[in-house]
Each structure stands twice: as C-alpha cells, then as structure tokens.
Write a structure and sequence with these properties.
InterPro entries: ADH-like_C, ADH_N_2, ER, GroES-like_sf, MDR_fam, NAD(P)-bd_dom_sf. Keywords: Oxidoreductase. Residues 11-328 form the Enoyl reductase (ER) domain. This protein is an alpha/beta fold and 330 residues long. The protein has ten helices and 15 strands. The strands form three sheets. Strands 3, 4, 5, 6, 7, 14 and 15 form a seven-stranded mixed beta sheet that branches. The protein is globular. The protein has two domains: 2-115 and 300-329, Medium-chain alcohol dehydrogenases, catalytic domain (Quinone Oxidoreductase, Chain A, domain 1); 127-275, NAD(P)-binding Rossmann-like Domain (Rossmann fold). The structure holds NADP nicotinamide-adenine-dinucleotide phosphate. NADP nicotinamide-adenine-dinucleotide phosphate binds next to helix 3, helix 4 and helix 10. Residues 46-48, 127-128, 131, 152, 154-158, 176-178, 181, 220-221, 223, 242-246, 272-274, 317-318, 320, 322 line the site of NADP nicotinamide-adenine-dinucleotide phosphate (NAP).
C-alpha cells in the first residue's frame, strides 16, 4: 500500500508558490521496535509554516530541509504500533507533516480524547488555544477593567484571546480586515469593539474606541494597524508579540515602533513562541477543554478537503481569506 506526502523542494522568496513542493507517493514502511504508524485525519495550516520554509537558522525551530516532508501539525489515529505507550486506536496530535501517514517513536506526540470533534481540537485545544492562553495569561497577565487590543482578532488565535479576555472582564477591541469578520466579532463573540484596519479612518476609530487608552496589546500581524495601537498605549502597558504575518512574505523588514515611545510609556514588550512551552500542553489543554465544555469559547473552522489543497491553502492566511482555523481534512 502507498501513501502521499508533500515535500519541500525549493525555498520561497516572497509568496508561497506551487513549485516549492512535490507530492510523492511512497510505500508504507515496516515499523522498527518502539515505532508507531499514524494515519492522519486532519492537518493544520498555520502562518508559521512560511517561516519554516525559509533557510533562517536563527529562529526558534530549524528550517525544514529541502527534500523533507513539509512540517505541519495534525491529528490522527495510531494504525499500527510497536510502542506500548501508544496502542492501536490511540488518537494523537503532533508535528507529523503534510502527509497521509507518519511514522513516529512517540516523541512529541500528545494523546487526545477520541470523542472530541477534529475541528474543536485543532481550533481550540491545539496551537491556537495554547498560544492564546499562554500569550494572554502568562505574558500579558490581564486584570479585570483593563482594555486590550488584538490584531488578526477574527483569526484562530485572536478570536480565542478576545473571548478569554472578555470572560476575564476586560474591554476588548478586536481588529480585523473585513466587514464580515468585524460583524462576527461584535455579534457572535460580543467583543466591545471590532474595527477594520483597512478603513481610511482606522486610527480615529481606534482612538474613539479606546477613550481611556490601551493597557494590553496582543500583536498578531504588524502592518498598518500597529502604529496607531502603539500610539494609544497607556503608561506601563504590555505588548505580547505573538505574530507578524504582515512581514512573513517580505524580503526586507518594516520599521518598528519608536524606542523613545517605549521609554516614555514605560512599556513591556515580549515576544514568545510556543515551542518553548510545549511541556505545558497538557495543563493548557485541560484549561481549554474546560472552557470549551462550559460553552465559554466559540470557534469557527475553515476546512479544505484533500492533501493536494494544503500548499496553496496556506496562502488563504496571507490574503485574509480564511474564516477561522484553517484545516485540511484527509
Ligand atoms: N508565537 C507563537 O508561538 C504563535 C503560534 C501561533 C500563531 N502565531 C502567530 O499568530 C498570528 C495569527 O495566527 P493564526 O494561526 O491565528 O492565523 P489567523 O489569524 O487565523 O489567520 C491569519 C490572519 O492574519 C491576517 N493578515 C494576513 N495578512 C495580513 C496583513 N498583511 N496585515 C494584517 N493582517 C493580516 C488575516 O486576517 P484579516 O482578514 O483580519 O486581515 C488572516 O486571516 C500569526 O502571525 C502567527 O504567525 C504565533
């Protein structure tokens, strides 16, 4: 029996194009001692994949080597096993790649309850949820009554940050790139304000929404929204730099905020990446599962069908065309 996998064969200079990938058909391997074979059911497409394709060795995770299966997280079921920790039928999540099957020794795999819908797992319990949870509670340390601004607020990370902040008693200003996304934030997620950063008067709208300034800023994008938010920050405000999607396809970095402004406002700005915190997945997963079962978190999943949809599908994230967590169902 054979299965398909998508290999990275060329590095991007700007946008992701089809010639960067090759789909290969390969025979299922024979397992060695301690190995297990996972049949993937769903893959997660994430903005970070663009960074993993580049040759940059100075990042938090090494680049994908040319010729290797493209790195991606996913979920699936153990179909064969020589590893007693992961018997046949165990549901697992991990960085198994853009592939229909993956062989593993179990390292880096997390077990999942079999009954949770795949969309709920990948939209909430997996990377988006743990990122939102860590960035909000461990980096920004919110207090009731504060005002938070969130970029890519209708995206998978941002929408969870806003809901958790709202549940904690903050005033939430969500920033997104379309009328439809802003309406979802206001009408379905009950954000206090939802602003379209593409509007010509965005800065005026932001200042009107943040009459008492912004205490916390969960930054997912960079780009044109960043400066007006920075200018509205209150003294001793905190900024969690989670993502910079507006930068990932650029060959030259855009200028950042004024360091003088950081002094004047006595701001704390902290970047974070989740691979530093993988060991907390069980703890965060439990907290997120509890929020989900209490009905405290709403999510929406944008599902593509078939492995062949994955490479070009990543571009939906960069065009703002994903409505919620981008998933490939196999
Ligand atoms: N630090 C970590 O460990 C970690 C973990 C997960 C994710 N992240 C980062 O968090 C951010 C959000 O990730 P996600 O998975 O939740 O994706 P997402 O928000 O579901 O999708 C990406 C969204 O970014 C917005 N966007 C794209 N290009 C933009 C631009 N030039 N300017 C402004 N907005 C733009 C689009 O929304 P609009 O339609 O609203 O423009 C798009 O839908 C990304 O930057 C990602 O790299 C970091």
């Amino acid at each position: 029996m054979t299965y398909q996998a998508i290999k990275l064969v060329k590095r991007p200079t700007e946008a992701i194009t089809p010639d960067l990938f090759e789909t290969t058909s390969q025979a299922l391997p024979t397992l060695k001692d301690d190995e297990l074979l996972v049949k993937l059911t769903h893959l997660s497409l994430d903005p970070a994949m663009r960074g993993w394709m580049s040759a940059d060795e100075n990042s938090y995770i090494p680049p994908v080597q040319l010729g290797d299966t493209m790195r991606a997280s996913g979920i699936g079921f153990v179909e064969q096993s020589n590893n007693e920790q992961f018997p046949v039928g165990t549901r697992v999540m991990g960085l198994m790649g853009l592939t229909e099957y993956a062989v593993s020794n179990g390292s880096g795999l997390n077990k999942l309850p079999a009954e949770l819908p795949a969309e709920a797992v990948l939209s909430v319990i997996a990377l988006p949820g743990i990122t939102a949870y860590h960035g909000l509670f461990e980096v920004l340390k919110p207090e009731s009554g504060q005002t938070i601004a969130i970029t890519a607020a209708a995206g998978s990370v941002g929408s969870l940050v806003g809901q958790m902040a709202k549940n904690k008693g903050l005033t939430v200003i969500g920033i997104a790139g379309s009328k439809e996304k802003c309406a979802w934030l206001k009408d379905e997620l009950n954000f206090d304000h939802a602003l379209n950063y593409k509007d010509a008067d965005f800065a005026d709208q932001l200042n009107a929404a943040a009459k008492d300034g912004i205490d916390l800023f969960f930054e997912n994008t960079g780009g044109i929204a960043q400066q007006p938010i920075f200018e509205a920050m209150n003294p001793h405000g905190r900024i969690a730099v989670c993502g910079m999607i507006a930068e990932y396809n650029k060959t030259e970095a855009s200028p950042g905020p004024s360091w003088v402004g950081i002094i004047k406002r006595r701001l704390t700005i902290q970047g974070f990446t989740m691979p530093d915190h993988w060991h907390r997945i069980p703890e965060y997963g439990q907290a997120l599962g509890a929020m989900l079962s209490k009905g405290e978190l709403t999510y929406r999943a944008h599902v593509l069908n078939g492995l062949d949809q994955a490479p070009d599908g990543i571009n939906l994230l960069f065009r703002g065309e994903n409505k919620g967590k981008l998933i490939v169902a196999l």
